[in-house]
Design brief:
The protein has 65 residues and is α+β, with helices and mostly antiparallel strands. The chain has one domain. It is built from two helices and three strands; from the N terminus they run E-E-E-H-H. The longest helix is centred in the middle third of the chain and has 14 residues, at 35-48. The radius of gyration is 12 Å and the shape is elongated.
């Protein structure tokens, strides 16, 4: 099951939270600073039964949209 994770970030022009996803054996940080978008993405992955094998490709597609 996919879930949303958050991380505090402090870089040159931004201080706040960044959101990512995690599964049973994988964690991908810093996908977006928009929590709602990442929540929707995680829900979609769960609905579709997305495999961790394809996680990086799915995140790339999500970011490119």
């Amino acid at each position: 099951m996919w879930r949303v994770i958050e991380k505090e970030i402090n870089v040159e022009n931004f201080k706040g939270k960044s959101y990512g996803i995690s599964g049973a054996t994988i964690e991908i940080n810093d996908i977006s600073t928009r929590k709602e978008e990442v929540e929707e993405f995680a829900e979609k992955l769960n609905r579709l039964g997305a495999s961790e094998v394809h996680a990086l490709e799915l995140v790339e597609d999500f970011i490119e949209r």
